[in-house]
Design brief:
Layout (H helix, E strand, L loop, with lengths): L1 E2 L3 H13 L6 E2 L2 H11 L4 E4 L7 H10 L8 E5 L4 H9 L4 E4 L4 H15 L1
Parallel strand pairs: 1-2, 1-3, 3-4, 4-5
């Protein structure tokens, strides 16, 4: 699942993941994502930090507090690469932090690392 309010980021991530043979679910904000997660149970979630209504930290926290999804890897996406942002992501339960703009290789390496751990 890719949660990002930027259509460009959602589409580029979707293209990279589809080319790698993944099934992709898109959400434009945290509320949209939370509504879809229960129905689709994604293997990995990429979550933008700066989104309207429900930001990425709040979205990640809500996902991780649900026992059904606590083990699902949540990767924070952000154009900010500061130590504070990374630490705050860890505090709400994120598993990794990917800086935007990300490359296809970085995205697929992250998927491989986190889906291998679960299988």
């Amino acid at each position: 699942m890719v949660i990002d309010d930027s259509n460009t980021i959602r589409k580029s991530a979707e293209i990279f993941l589809l080319q790698a043979g993944a099934r992709v679910l898109l959400a434009e904000d945290g509320f949209d994502a939370l509504a879809k997660i229960n129905d689709h149970q994604p293997d990995i979630i990429f979550c933008d930090i700066l989104m309207p209504r429900l930001d990425g930290y709040q979205t990640c926290s809500l996902i991780k507090k649900n026992p059904k999804f606590a083990a699902t890897p949540v990767i924070m996406l952000s154009s900010k690469d500061g130590l504070f942002d990374r630490a705050r992501g860890r505090m709400v339960g994120s598993d990794e932090y990917l800086t935007k703009p990300f490359t296809k290789d970085a995205l697929l390496r992250t998927v491989a690392a986190h889906t291998a751990e679960r299988n």
